[in-house]
Specification:
The chain is α+β, with helices and mostly antiparallel strands. The chain has a single domain, classed as Dimeric alpha+beta barrel (Alpha-Beta Plaits, 2-Layer Sandwich). The chain has helices at residues 14-23, 31-39, 66-74, 77-86; strands at residues 2-10, 42-50, 53-60, 90-91, 103-104. Strand 2 (42-50) and strand 3 (53-60) form a beta hairpin. The longest helix is centred in the N-terminal third of the chain and has 10 residues, at 14-23. It comes from Ohtaekwangia kribbensis. This is L-rhamnose mutarotase.
């Protein structure tokens, strides 16, 4: 198993943040999106928020790769629809490159 932590910012607007959280409630999940997540080798995913900063923890199978996930997503119209919808709420971190959304974080401490 591999573990990844990623970060992303939301547009700093309380109404948009509330809408974003609503889209991520279990009862509002798009089945095609959750299927695309698990089909890519992600076994668990959690997203946390403080202010307008998001923090994602992903646990994956050893065979998981971001390149493979991106290729699958590029060929999935429902994932593309979801991503376009989410751009209304999200804004890239200042150091993101080429339209990146979620940025993989570097682990700097482990007990």
């Amino acid at each position: 198993m591999k573990k990844y932590c990623l970060a992303l910012d939301l547009v700093d607007d309380p109404e948009l943040i509330a809408q974003y959280e609503d889209w991520h409630r279990k009862e509002n999940a798009w089945p095609a999106i959750t299927k695309s997540i698990t089909d890519s080798g992600i076994s668990n995913m959690e997203i946390y928020r403080t202010g307008n900063r998001l923090f994602m923890i992903m646990e994956t199978e050893d065979s998981f790769s971001f390149e493979g996930k991106a290729a699958m997503d590029d060929n999935n119209p429902k994932v593309q629809e979801w991503e376009q919808l989410m751009w209304k709420f999200q804004k890239p971190l200042p150091w993101a490159k080429n339209g990146q959304k979620w940025i993989v974080m570097d682990q700097i401490f482990h007990l």
